């Protein structure tokens, strides 16, 4: 008996792994989130033919999501700081999924724009929620891996399910692309509400909670409700008046511009400029998403590995981001070849780079004022996702019926600006202090 007691005691104090379930839940939610962002791009060539839309009108329709999504990032971040994720996420999921579903039921250009605006409204709090959950549930040394894992959901979902949605459109109609993705989101909202809990209300044992807390996870942040019911001027000054945070904001705009190219114009490029059918284009469109997935998974693991080996927080986080942005500039190579195979290679390498750079939320976790994680995340996502408006509209205006090259040139210039932002504006990675406090260096 005495021989087994120490082993039992060690087992009793061993940290549980409840946070693994949280990572999986975030992953599935991101898959659904991005399917509902990208489903329009899959259906757009058929919609454009049915409604007789020119490229400028297509760009406007593709950008509709971004208008409300970007505009509501700051209110969404404010909401995330005040409403528990267990309640807020399933409410948002249900509402944006209903708007998606109705896109497959109603017809007409104006109706589709209105519904896409609503999808943007209800998806607005999604990534600030993800960031808050990751900051609460994961210690610093695991956070980039967790963020990389759930962020990979956007690419896994698109890589595996883009061919499925393309097949669904080809065999039934474009309407079912929206009906199917909407129904999936409604079901998952019920699952999230039933399973998700905050650390101290979950099945995590005391050892796991202490492991998270000692590692920098803000396990009690959800219990520390803000005393003010509104955003103060000092709060806004803290998230808008810091050069370092502006480096993050501008860098995110440049990074997500590449993402929004793939979420909006890429399938149309393959169908209209490479003359592919829907089935073939659906398969080829999935390959860059596979590459991006590899980039995302590599980024989080590499960043946390470097951190554990003693590399500074700044180098471990910024290194993959800057490298990934540099790789994304290779997209311009698609303008200089007539080979479809080489086009896919150039775009796959570029999107691999985008995935490699996708741990930018780990810098928000490391640099945002602790009390203003939601507000900073909202501002970060607001400015970053202005690209969801600019990218489809600008590309739609500068491309011609004969050439997509101006679109690739625009994307390359934007990516270079992102590299410069991380190098010269972000600088040293350190947490920005609340008003009146001194910054804590990392």
UniProtKB/TrEMBL annotation:
Locations listed in the record: Cell membrane
Ranges where the Major facilitator superfamily (MFS) profile domain occurs: 22-430
Native source organism of the sequence: Streptomyces luteolus
Signal keyword on record: no
The name this protein goes by in its record: MFS transporter
Transmembrane segments: 18-35, 87-115, 174-195, 245-263, 283-307, 319-336, 342-367, 379-399, 405-425
PANTHER family: D-GALACTONATE TRANSPORTER, SOLUTE CARRIER FAMILY 17
Membrane topology: Multi-pass membrane protein
Keyword Isomerase applies: no
Keywords from the UniProt entry: Membrane, Transmembrane, Transmembrane helix
Pfam families xrefs: MFS_1
